[in-house]
Design brief:
Distance between the termini: 38 Å
Order of helices and strands: EHEHH
Number of strands: 2
Largest sheet: 2 strands, parallel
């Protein structure tokens, strides 16, 4: 079974996730591995809100910290 080619967002933490997702798609990546620093993914919110991870998966803007 082939694995998707993904980009880890940690190196790009200074870019908004929406911009990075668009660029990654243009570069040919098939997915993102979200960093838990910067504004890409809020671990605490993921642990406290049951719908956070699904929302982040459906819409990267929903994962924004803050």
């Amino acid at each position: 079974m082939p694995r998707p080619v993904t980009l880890f967002t940690g190196q790009w933490a200074d870019l908004p996730l929406e911009d990075l997702a668009r660029k990654a798609q243009e570069f040919g990546y098939q997915g993102l591995e979200l960093a838990c620093w910067g504004d890409h993914f809020d671990v605490t919110k993921a642990l406290q809100e049951s719908g956070y991870c699904r929302a982040a998966q459906d819409d990267p803007a929903a994962a924004r910290v803050g």
